[in-house]
Amino acid sequence: MGLISGLILNAFGNGLCITADMGSGLWTAAAVNLNKWFAWNTGLILFAFGVINAITNQFLIKKFDGKRLVGQILYVLFFSYFVNIFTDLLNYVGVPNLPIVVRTILSCLGVVCFCVAISLYQRANIVMHPNDDTTNILRFFYLNGNSTKAQIIDFLPPIIIILIAAVGIHNVYSVNIGTLFSFIFNGILIASADKFIWPQLKHNFKTQTD
């Protein structure tokens, strides 16, 4: 239940950020900018990002872990599918046409949603989004537990994609107040969710090395 509820809430939060267009997480922003540039489906782009991340993780752990790879690809398959569903639904109900103040609030709410989602599926620790796994691998395998450095390294690819897309479309989308909100409060929101949202769901450490 922690995995499934986290997956759906993660997709809803990202869909809300996309439709509100007042800022989102950097990987989602990179997908939105590629969508604006090439008219590729946003969910499909997020799926491609996830698969690339999942394969990258295999190289980072320096061994082939088939269970990890398949689990992460399945996660992004369902995640990207639900992002498309929620984005279409929120577009249909008119979120992009709401006043800018309301869209700003909704974008920040989307960040809160996907932070709670990360807390849920990380505690369940059955399978997680490969990007979250990338950050964990960088942090504990290469950077002596330094989460800040791991996050910065993980942010570099989407930032580069956004900058390249900006040259192509002469604009930047989905990077705004919501993005700054995400930068500042991501860690705080996840830690708070650990404490207050479904506190009975404890971190499943026993499978960390599986």
Rg over C-alpha atoms, rounded to the nearest angstrom: 16 Å
Shape: globular
Q: How much helix, percentage-wise, in residues?
A: over 70%
Structural class: mainly alpha
Described by strand count, sense and barrel closure, the largest sheet is: none
Low-confidence segments:
205-210
Summarize, please.
The protein is mainly alpha-helical and 210 residues long. It has helices at residues 2-20, 26-38, 42-60, 66-92, 100-124, 130-142, 147-169, 177-196.
Q: What is this structure's SSE topology?
A:
Elements: H1 2-20, H2 26-38, H3 42-60, H4 66-92, H5 100-124, H6 130-142, H7 147-169, H8 177-196
Helix pairs in contact: 1-4, 1-5, 2-3, 2-7, 3-4, 3-6, 5-8, 6-7
Q: Can you offer a commentary on this structure?
A:
This protein is mainly α and 210 residues long. It is built from eight helices and no strands. The chain has helices at 2-20, 26-38, 42-60, 66-92, 100-124, 130-142, 147-169, 177-196. Helix 3 (42-60) runs parallel beside helix 6 (130-142). The longest helix has 27 residues, at 66-92. The two termini are 20 Å apart. Mean pLDDT is 90; it is low at 205-210.
Features:
about 210 residues, mainly alpha, 8 helices, globular, disordered C terminus
